[in-house]
Amino acid sequence: MLPFFASSPESLPLIPAFLGNLIRPLPLLPLEFALAGVLDHIGKNHPHLLDRLGQHRGKRFGIAPIDLPIVFIVEAAAPRPRLTVMRELPDGLDVRISSSLANLLALLEGRLDGDALLFSRQLAIEGDVEALLALRNAIDDARLDLAFEIGSLFGPFAELVERLFGKARDVALRSISSPRGSE
Amino acid sequence: MIELICPAGTPAALRTAVEAGADAVYCGFNDETNARNFPGLNFSRDELGEAIAFAHVRGVKILVAINTFPRASAVDLWRRAVDDAVQAGADALILADIGLMDYAARRHPDQRLHVSVQAAAANPDAISFYVGTFGVRRVVLPRVLSVAEIAEITREIDCETEVFVFGGLCVMAEGRCSLSSYATGKSPNMQGVCSPASHVAYEQTAAGTTSRLGRFTINRFEAGEAAGYPTLCKGRFSTEYGAGYIFEDPVSLDATTLLAGLRDAGVTALKIEGRQRGRAYVEGVVRHFRDALKVLEIGGEADVARLRPFTEGQATTVGAYRKTWR
Amino acid sequence: MQFSLGPILYNWAPEQWRDFYFRIADESSVDTVVIGEIVCSKRAPFFAPHLAAVLERLQAAGKQVLLGSLILVSQRRERRQTEELAQTSDFLVEVNDITCLKSLAGRAHAIGPFINVYNEATGVFHAERGARRLCLPPELPLSSIAAIAAALPHAMVEVFAFGRVPLAISARCYHARIHKLHKDNCRFICDKNPDGLVLNTLANEEFLTINGVQTLSHSVANLLGDIDALKLAGVGSLRLSPQDCDMVGVVEVFRDVVEGREDANGGNLRLSRIYPHAAFSNGFLHGKAGFSYMGPLVPT
User: Is the residue at C247 inside a domain?
Assistant: First the structure.
């Protein structure tokens, strides 16, 4: 199902395997609940994001980080986008996207160029390419800051959580061979 | 001082381009009036107004591309785009269709007009036609010319020139190519899309990853092999003499090494392709060329490998600027 | 409905070129003939020795002759040739590049299929500056053709009705590239393929045709099944583009169908015999992908 992939996933910046193993036995529902909250928040803060999706609102995007034992299904339906966490991608999705978690997070924040990832075969896509483009463009325009979005769910602890998540994210992103790098 | 013209497919990309050092940003409306009519891309009327206000405060110009060829019986849609862009305070309109230029020149005689690369003005006589007939102030030169040919052109014409220095590279003369509509029914000239995403499919076969456009196989990649856009002119095909990249390899244009030559050729502005690209691309490429221009002023040489990760096939070419095939 | 023979797009042997036109003059009922090397300026000198005789023979046969201009003009030599052509007063010039529009303004001329006329406003612009005939771009759908023709009651509107469809022009020569030659030293290798070089996809489907700096479709445009619609749309002339087949016969088939002596099915059958193995297409006219074909049965 990963049609566009680089030779070996080892060449991608991955999170350590022990992290994946840590996540594997956890129940998915609490995670789903928390992420749904983040998604909800993003939807409220960025009303134009859904506008930009246009006719592709309501499509189902399956996102499979290759270094996690879980996958995400995002349904970009108005007024509230829906998110499901599963062990593997089901059939019948409109789009399937796969890459390392770090790449996916960087894409989400517009820190990496999606086309560049495709050219270097670090991103695999399958299905409705037009819907994926619409999503990518909508997200890129939204200037998401995940640390801020997640932090703001924590009321009085917002700043603390934002700072903690921001640190964790930056560590993850450092592993990416950024096109801004000098390689 | 040579101008740096940068792409923006979204308001966020536009802000990024301005902050990264653009002298001007070009963008289009979110409909078939512009040649990057991609899903989720481009500007509403309100967004354009806000973008122009944002840019003007920072001394940056906004150029509005209305560079497809109006559909017969629907010309008003394009004329409205012209009127609205003028109304919004666009610093220039980038037009391709002769009828639309005629309209813009008559209706908005004070508006600055640029000839789009889609208008195929490839020599001084063609350019003089546009200058003499519509009073255009600048022509975006097709990517079929060498630096020497550009120098010859700038000497002979009465308007400014703008040339592409980075990004996607049309192999065929722009605005004169129906390859995409032959395979998909949608063309750059009419719908503003080339090899549209709606017709692209990737599939896994025994021989590797296959990219298809509509009914036709465009390429087949082995695992790990660098890729490009699934555009027809950069696909792999075969003839009785063998298989391969018959028209062009998957590469992007990078004229970083030719900046001095282009400046000496009398070019007014350098253009970066890529309104369909993300903020990371805009940021990286605009900053690179802003730096390269600074280095050029003090007579140094810019880092040429820096942009390779952004390119198709992870490879660059200087394209027609140095006609190695001639 | 009139018929015009488009310019020969391929690199034919000079004698073949000459004899082709002699036969058209002597045997064909075509009304208008467009002459000239419009694809590659390097080929033009080969035909020059025969040009006068061909023009004379065609005129003596009562054909209207148009001189086609080069599609992509960039070098100084090409500009000079194009300018000389624009100064011709004996024949109508068919303009294929913006280059000669300035010198032709106010004088009668024809607009060829390589000038972007996509809408009625652009059509009117050209007509007001002297365009008497407009052969519209092959990628236009019927609705656009009808709207443009309606706005140009005094001009002859023509559509590309037969032949491999020109799709793109480049500064680069693909015949030279395929044969690992430089363009300036190409040995005129495109003469090996008088009907173009077939380009297949990696899945072995026939897809395009290479003709030096030009790329054409592999399928052959065939609007025999659309003739009633074209008449209704106000089209006054059908452009038949020379392929390496019996073009006198092709003109005859089209005339028989247009004038009601043959139906489109019968016409298709005859075309398939004249030009074997041709995959027909008319998708552009129907607003679909250009390679597709809808309409009367094509005999297999």
Answer: yes
Closest CA to C6 of C160, C134, C155: C160
**Measured between alpha carbons, how far is residue C121 from residues B71, B322, C129, C149, C236 in Å?**
10, 38, 13, 11, 19
Peptide bond into B250 cis (omega under 30): no
Residue C152 and residue C193 in contact, taking contact as beta carbons nearer than 8 Å: no
Asked if residue C208 belongs to a domain, the reply is no
Which residues, in sequence order, are CB contacts of C47 under 8 Å at separation 6+? C14, C17, C18, C37
* Cβ–Cβ contact C203 with B under 8 A: yes
Ramachandran sector of residue A42 (left: φ over 0; alpha: ψ -120 to 50; beta: rest): alpha
Contact B179 C165 (CB under 8 A): no
C98-131 confidence digits (pLDDT tens): 999 989 989 999 999 999 999 999 999 999 999 9
For residues C89 and C129, give the distance between their C-alpha atoms in angstroms, rounded to a whole number. Answer: 16
Count other C-beta atoms under 10 Å from residue A60's C-beta: 21
Q: What is the pLDDT of residue A88?
A: 92
Contact across the interface for B279 and A140, Cβ inside 8 Å = yes
CATH for A16-145, options being 3.40.50.1470, 3.30.1050.10, 3.40.50.1820, 3.40.50.11690: 3.30.1050.10
Give contacts of C 87-116 with B, CB under 8 A.
97-103, 114, 116
Q: What ipTM was estimated for this complex?
A: 0.96
Could you give the CA distance from residue C32 to residue C65 in angstroms, rounded to a whole number? 6
In A, minimum Cα distance to B40 occurs at: A134
**SS3 (DSSP) at A59:** coil
> Residue B281 and residue A7: Cβ atoms within 8 Å?
no
Range of the domain at C252: 2-165+219-278
Q: Is C285 a domain residue?
A: no
| Contact present, A166 and A160 (Cβ < 8 Å) | no
Q: State residue A10's pLDDT score.
A: 43
When divided into structural domains, chain C yields a total of 1
Q: What pLDDT digit, counting tens, does each position of C62-75 carry?
A: 999 999 999 999 88
d(CA B78, CA B94) in angstroms, rounded, equals 12
Q: Which residue reads 């040339």 in tokens?
A: B163
Query: Does the domain at residues B3-169+251-321 carry the CATH identifier 3.40.630.30?
Result: no
Within a domain: C65: yes
Residues C199-255 have pLDDT tens digits of 999 999 999 999 999 999 999 999 999 999 999 999 999 999 999 999 999 999 999
CATH number for the domain harbouring residue C42: 3.20.20.70
Pair type for strands B113-115 and B92-95: parallel
**A111: which 2 tokens?**
């820190």
> Rounded to whole angstroms, how far apart are CA atoms C299 and C213?
33
Alpha carbon separation from C128 to B99, C90, C108 (Å, rounded): 12, 21, 10
CA distance A179 to chain B (A): 5
Chunked mean pLDDT (size 10), chain B, 326 residues: 96 97 97 90 97 98 97 97 98 98 98 96 95 98 89 96 92 94 95 91 77 93 80 94 92 91 96 94 95 88 78 82 73
